[in-house]
Design a protein that fits this description.
The protein is built from six helices and three strands. With 149 residues, it is mostly helical. It has a three-stranded antiparallel β-sheet with strand order 1-3-2. Helix 2 crosses helix 5 and helix 3 packs across helix 4.
Length: 149
Amino acid sequence: MKERFETFTVLINRISRNIRKIKNQEMAEYHLRSSHISCLYYLYKSERLTATELCEKCEEDKATISRVLDYLETNGYLICESKSAKRYKSPLVLTEKGTQVGKKIADKIDRVLEEVSFALTEDERVAFYRSLSMISESLDTIAKAYDKL
């Protein structure tokens, strides 16, 4: 049992660290961080999202997304379409600069996913993601139980 725990936690941490490292290295020329990348990616794929929707997609809290969006807007990557509605519920869209970087992010993600899954069959990949989802859901349930204590 101990070995399973160590293997699981070490591998999950290593995967997370490597994803962050790839994000940070790829976007250093744009002075963007890992959290910026996720917002740009989801906006590029969806064309327009609200801050609330980005919180959900990025699995980040409101304060983090707010800081990220302020940075991206200040640096010309996105704009808020509506000045009248509450900002958090207003659609955000990428500028031309944001779209160019969003495309680069999406292309890089596609290449990385292609590289990491080359040894897997389609059935193995589906089973892997199904297993990962089940583990994630179980850990969410356990974590929520701790919140109630």
